[in-house]
Design a protein that fits this description.
214 residues, alpha/beta, Rossmann fold, eight-stranded mixed β-sheet, 14 strands, 27% helix, globular
């Protein structure tokens, strides 16, 4: 049995994510236990970790650090043991060194870079960016394979993660300029878009994550 720790810190779309992970697991067969948790012992031992996130960077960072031992347990599992990790929306943004929303807030620093306001070249484009947008795969990666020729995924955000290295950008989207839609480094991946709201493409991506062996 594979155990997935879905991090509960009061800042995630956890019900939708849990349902989507279950659907992805069913598509693969086998037995997967999805546990919504803020228990450091469960997180530390989990086979895979998913960090959702909805709202402001500073609030999410505060909520995550406000759960005793959770960040340390995540670091032990992901950084030391090498458990595959998926961050979604603000859960991806928290991988950065710093977020610029509501002033400068320290992130996890797992992928060097910063979270900046989404600033399209066309001032007529609305902020936040909400709805479906085509995903461009920048680098071959197992988690982003098999999504189709022109996959469309669902976004809702006003800030974007800008990694220091272009090599960490796994996929991008166009919205008055090109921006990071997904990042990947070692056993860590993150999506700015919401796989749990992206229908068949999102379920395929989550299934890829569940079967990924970095």
């Amino acid at each position: 049995m594979s155990q997935i720790a879905l991090i509960d810190y009061g800042s995630g779309n956890v019900r939708s994510m849990s349902r989507a992970l279950a659907a992805a697991a069913d598509s693969l067969g086998g037995t997967t236990l999805i546990t919504l948790t803020d228990d450091p012992d469960v997180i530390r031992k989990a086979d895979r970790i998913v960090l959702p996130g909805v709202g402001h960077f500073a609030d999410c960072a505060s909520g995550l650090r406000g759960r005793p031992g959770v960040v340390e347990a995540m670091s032990d599992a992901v950084r030391k043991r090498g458990a595959p990790f998926l961050g979604v929306c603000v859960g991806m943004q928290l991988l950065a060194d710093v977020g610029r929303e509501d002033g400068d807030t320290e992130g996890l620093g797992w992928i060097p870079g910063s979270v900046e306001p989404l600033a399209p070249d066309d001032p007529q484009l609305p902020i936040p960016h909400m709805g479906w947008n085509e995903l461009s795969i920048d680098h071959e990666h197992e988690v982003f394979s098999g999504l189709g020729a022109s996959p469309n995924v669902y976004f809702t955000h006003s800030y974007v993660f800008s990694p220091e290295s272009a090599a960490d950008v796994a996929a991008s989207f166009s919205y008055g300029g090109n921006f990071a839609a997904a990042v990947a480094r070692d056993n860590v991946v993150g999506t700015q878009f919401h796989p749990e709201k992206s229908q068949a493409v999102g379920i395929r991506l989550l299934a890829n994550f569940l079967s990924w062996s970095p």
